[in-house]
Amino acid sequence: MHIPDGYVDITIAVLFGALSVAILGLAARRVGRRVPESRAPLLGVVAAGIFAAQMLNWPIPGGTSAHFVGGAFAAILLGPHLGALCVATVVTIQALVFGDGGLVVLGANVFNMAIVEVYVGYGFYRLLAPYGEYRAAFVAGWLGITAGALTAGLQLGLSSAFEYQLLTTLSIMGVGHLVLGLIEGAITAVVYRFLAEARPDLQPTAAAEVSPS
Amino acid sequence: MNARPDWFPRALAILLVLTLLTPLFGWAAGAVGYAEPLENAAEATGAADSAEAVGIALMPDYAVAGLGTAPGTVVAAVVGTALTLVVAGAIGRLLGTEPNAE
């Protein structure tokens, strides 16, 4: 899902870059001064875990595959605003140090993986958590990554390199990740369940985070 | 200030295990012809040749110059994971923590 430079038109890249800066700025303001001391190292560990997990490509024989992105997972564990900053850190380091995802298009990649996947995933989690926390985590991971893939498909389909074939890019990205997202959802639910049972003290305090400041 | 929580050493051990697994997954991805939907979309629309590499990356494609594929992947994974741990942790502290915010 990491878009390289050259794929997205500069106007699209600038537009989504500006959107990402604005939204992450708001996210930082919302969590500012309210990060509990125990959450700073947790933010580091979750970000590092997502970085490492993103290097583990799922080896599905003979077909299209992907890797864990972790946006919904970060949102559930850290709350959406800290989750967005967490995944944005990962995506930025991947681009700057490892050339995974372009620099001009960095804002678009952050928008897809650190904003759309995080906030959409978190929205599904909050909506469905009353019916089962782990089932909600599964749906959050599944549909969060699908939503991020759709915005990536939108950016690609509105660009000249993809000959403005919006329907093609949306369908390949959307359907592909709708299927692959089942694995993202499963990992999100299983790892969250493991953490929730092993360390209930690390349970999110997201309700406080999303309340009006 | 900011004393490490008791779960921190165990978390570091889990991170280390994940980084050590990266060459195995890298090899498996190559063996099955790993391709993401993004690459499929680029192929379908003729955009694949438009991709440009990021010139400033220190370890492009998670590889280290002079090292083989597997050791290079491990080094890239360890460096990237450690860097992310430090940067994200610093962001958490920079945002401003309060001892009783929870």
UniProtKB/TrEMBL annotation, chain A:
Keywords: Cell membrane, Membrane, Transmembrane, Transmembrane helix, Transport
Subcellular location, principal: membrane
Pfam families: CbiM (PF01891)
Superkingdom: Archaea
Keyword check for 4Fe-4S: no
Membrane-related topology note: Multi-pass membrane protein
InterPro entries the record matches: CbiM/NikMN
Spans through the membrane: 6-28, 40-60, 66-91, 103-125, 137-158, 170-195
Cellular component terms (Gene Ontology): plasma membrane
Subcellular localization, as worded in the UniProt entry: Cell membrane
UniProt-recorded name of the protein: Energy-coupling factor ABC transporter permease
Organism: Halohasta litorea
TrEMBL record, chain B:
Matching InterPro entries: PDGLE_dom
Repeat found in the keyword field: no
Domain of life: Archaea
Pfam families: PDGLE
Compartment(s) where it occurs, according to its Swiss-Prot or TrEMBL record: Cell membrane
Main location, first listed in the record: membrane
Keyword annotations: Cell membrane, Membrane, Transmembrane, Transmembrane helix
Transmembrane domains' residue ranges: 74-96
Residue ranges constituting the PDGLE domain according to the UniProt record: 27-95
GO CC aspect terms: plasma membrane
Name of the featured protein: PDGLE domain-containing protein
Organism ancestry: Archaea, Methanobacteriati, Methanobacteriota, Stenosarchaea group, Halobacteria
